[in-house]
């Protein structure tokens, strides 16, 4: 992790026109958490894509991907038309390691450590699972209240300084964040909300952790009516399928796509569900390679191919969102496309049920 700090400082120095490093908060063991912002200078208002890695300590391929992602964007933003296009409209915020204490502990003491390092019960047991500690259906399913469990959800929602720092930051910026990406391993999945309910989204309603909310829909502003609302969970699924197809195109790696509770297991208090619940339209968990033969201890020769294929999936999602929210310059109006073209400004609203 000292290495990751050095890498962040160096990346910022050598790409100062694009990258800034920002303070996010402190861990339970008082280490500083930083995120990187990749932003092309511009006078237009931009939206944000957020990505975090290393919520779980032992998932070493995750921080490796965050670093790879940053490196690839910086090396290619001038030459790759896709990247240079979305950087005009979108800023990228990357948190390379959320669970710094746990990550270091997994390097130095226990390779398979998962949680953070907060002491409980007078130091007789350690660690909260940060991905069960967010404030969405907290503590309701797929968690343990026993502090020695791998999936201990903490003493309350956002009880951990790491979770709290990230949640407060995202909460502050949420009206500008179009996409929340969180990178984990392993299993080869792209997971959509929700983990805490298995009710599949219907076209008329979507189930949300908070009962006061009805469906989150994308509504075209032009009409002020609900007629062209698209249930966002259906749209998320479509985009995830595009992403998994792009990923498979590189090395043939197969990723399964679906809502967490339907294709994997139920969990509450995850960052992905929380981000979607506070109104961030696109929210995904990536579970990187492999399917279990090496599990968390992925062989070094798989690091690069994993990062390469995941890069394709992630840029597919970002590119899609960019094109949806920032349609290209002048639109040719023909009678057939007229209705559509006038509705290109899109707003997200919670429809109260």
From TrEMBL:
Topology relative to the membrane, per the entry? Answer: Lipid-anchor; GPI-anchor
| InterPro entries in the cross-refs | CARBOXYPEPT_ZN_1, Peptidase_M14
Q: What is its main location?
A: membrane
Q: Key word Magnesium present in the record?
A: no
Q: Name one GO cellular component term.
A: side of membrane
Q: In which domain of life is the source organism classified?
A: Eukaryota
Q: Where, subcellularly, is it found?
A: Apical cell membrane
Q: What does this protein do?
A: Carboxypeptidase which preferentially cleaves C-terminal acidic residues from peptides and proteins. Can also cleave C-terminal hydrophobic amino acids, with a preference for small residues over large residues.
This chain's protein is named: Carboxypeptidase O
């Amino acid at each position: 992790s000292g290495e990751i700090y050095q890498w962040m400082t160096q990346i910022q120095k050598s790409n100062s026109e694009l990258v800034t490093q920002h303070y996010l908060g402190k861990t339970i063991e008082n280490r500083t958490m930083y995120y990187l912002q990749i932003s092309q200078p511009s006078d237009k208002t931009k939206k944000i894509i957020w990505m975090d890695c290393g919520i779980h300590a032992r998932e070493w391929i995750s921080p490796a991907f965050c670093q790879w992602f940053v490196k690839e964007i910086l090396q290619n933003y001038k030459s790759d038309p896709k990247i240079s296009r979305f950087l005009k409209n979108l800023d990228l915020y990357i948190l390379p390691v959320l669970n710094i204490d746990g990550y270091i502990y997994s390097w130095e003491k226990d390779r398979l450590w998962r949680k953070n390092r907060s002491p409980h019960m007078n130091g007789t047991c350690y660690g909260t699972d940060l991905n069960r500690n967010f404030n969405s259906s907290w503590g309701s399913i797929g968690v343990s209240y026993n502090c020695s469990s791998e999936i201990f959800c903490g003493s309350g929602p956002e009880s951990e300084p790491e979770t709290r720092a990230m949640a407060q930051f995202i909460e502050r910026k949420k009206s500008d964040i179009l996409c929340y990406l969180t990178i984990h391993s392993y299993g080869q999945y792209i997971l959509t909300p929700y983990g805490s309910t298995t009710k599949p989204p219907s076209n008329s309603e979507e189930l949300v952790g908070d009962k006061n909310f009805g469906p989150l829909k994308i509504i075209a502003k032009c009409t002020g009516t609900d007629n062209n609302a698209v249930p966002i969970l259906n749209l998320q699924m479509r985009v995830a399928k595009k992403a998994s197809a792009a990923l498979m195109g590189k090395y043939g790696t197969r990723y399964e796509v679906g809502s967490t509770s339907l294709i994997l297991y139920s969990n509450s208090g995850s960052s992905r569900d929380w981000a979607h619940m506070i109104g961030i339209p696109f929210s995904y968990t990536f579970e990187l390679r492999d399917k279990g033969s090496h599990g968390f201890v992925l062989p070094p020769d798989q690091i690069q191919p994993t990062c390469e294929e995941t890069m394709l999936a992630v840029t597919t999602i970002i590119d899609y969102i960019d094109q949806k929210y920032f349609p290209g310059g002048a639109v040719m109006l023909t009678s057939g496309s007229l209705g559509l073209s006038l509705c290109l400004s899109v707003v997200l609203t919670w429809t109260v049920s």
